[in-house]
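ok so for the tutorial part 2 we go from a plain amino acid sequence to predicted structure tokens. step 1 is just haveing the sequence, like this:
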Amino acid sequence: MKTDIQIAQEAKMLPIAEIAAELGVADEELELYGRYKAKITDSFLTRTASKKNGKLILVTAINPTPAGEGKTTTTVGLGMAMKKIGKNAVIALREPSLGPVFGIKGGAAGGGYAQVVPMEDINLHFTGDFHAITSANNLLCAVLDNHIQQGNALGIDPRRVQFARVVDMNDRALRNILIGLGGKINGVPREDHFTITVASEVMAILCLAEDLADLKRRLGNILVAYTYDGKPVFCRDLQVNGAMTALLKDAIKPNLVQTLENTPALIHGGPFANIAHGCNSIRATKLAQKLADYAITEAGFGADLGAEKFLNIKCRMAGLSPDAVVLVATVRALKYNGGVAKPDLKAENVDALKRGAVNLEAHIDNLQKFGVPVVVAINRFDTDTDEELAALRAICENKGADFALSEVFAKGGDGGIELAEKVIAACEKPKNFKFIYSDELSITEKIEAVAKEMYGADGVVFEAGAKKALADILAIDEAYARFPVCIAKTQYSLSDDPTKLGRPTGHTITVRDVKLSAGAGFIVVLTGAIMTMPGLGKTPTAYSIDIDNDGNISGLF
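step 2 — the prediction. this is what the tokens look like for a chain of 557 residues:
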């Protein structure tokens, strides 16, 4: 059986200029990064701003398990299937982070015969967006520490710095560090921290910014530190948001690539959904709607994380209104939720499937609260039996959700035709899109709304540090009370305990810290033991990645 990278390396890609031309992008509106990837310029976005929007489809999933769900694979396959049946579709995805690529997850460009290409480029440096975000973030950190070193005119308290350095790699050793050691010439010693780039506020800002002016304004609003007398210090006070924007002038432009079957794909931005808002850029999503009759995008991890943030944060800020939601699940993952050990998932077990299907039911219920039609996509494996699939179909029908099998991993676009037809039909159904909380609710009420409505929690417990942090934020400006909340939580469970599978009940969510992302425009809520800098496992994927003397990469996935 061929690996994903072998399939991708055999792909017959078209020059990206041809893909762009089919979308109506002129040569001068395209910035080429080699033959098979390019950025689309602001001039094209401006020229097409008045065009009618296509239907917007969000792809999400049940809580992830070691069995895998295949959300990105389904997203890519759905776009290819749309093309197979004569529909004009464009895919809008996130860029992969180097952390998971070299960690445990491997590549993130789809799988099997439903991939975006060039796969190696997309999974590695791509067009350099993440490096630009890392550089812009760390420029602010360097200017901050230099300001303290050069006399500290703003009176910044080094003990109350709120903004951390970043690197796009899983590196637990950098979570908590000391800087400025080695004498006066090397700076003022203080405690510092590293966050993974995809969890940074700069990443969130890039993905939520409408244009360069908005990007510069948002960067200026980043809360950097507090002074000795408790006053906030923002990025604009350090006069560095202009230079940061200059570093990001190309990164803000959406990237255009293609699928194995030459369907256009926009890949731009990449915040994690468990510790950030988990969606690709607003610019790429809106551009996809202008370019096609159907814009297909995804949100990270399960629907309790990525989809909730897409719907409550991204749609709120960008004025988006999805026409349908695709919820990806697998028979294997549901049996895992039903108590079956990973080595035994290939054996038929309808009873375990029914037990584990409560996780699927919870996500259907949650998504239906937003007033948008839901289609359940079962990413089919050859070990799935007819009895298991029949039971799963009955469960979906009982919950009022359409159901379709997806075999895009093995068959490409041909394996997603049933799903494409169900999604097209769902897009024509009546919808009543709404958020699950209003701007007028307090921050604590918003957190409680998500915890109760999405996680099935009985309530929320705020640790003392979280209460003080929230009070400090609201003391800066009461207007921050209108911000949406971005909850950082384990992806493996509907609760904040990764070991609680299925549909946990009788639990509470513990909030241990609250942080202001004033530039992004939301309040970050840290729950449970979630960390913003992941670590590598005992046997990271990096061990298996290699390159030969001719430049051919292997082991990426």
